[in-house]
Design brief:
This protein is mainly alpha-helical. 87% of the residues lie in helices and 0% in strands. The protein has helices at 2-39, 41-50, 53-57.
Amino acid sequence: MLLWLAKSALKRVKMLKFYEFRNFYIKIYKYFLLIFEQFMPNLYHFYIKKVNFKTVLWIFE
């Protein structure tokens, strides 16, 4: 029983770390896109067209 509790707690901690990393990545990605759009609009639109944007959007859900 105790072992099971310890394992489930460890899983929760791992998940929390994963979500923290994911949120951090989303922030960086949003700033990256903003800067990208500001300074290189042509490249930005090219990037958006080339990289299917729907594959990127799952990060923001």
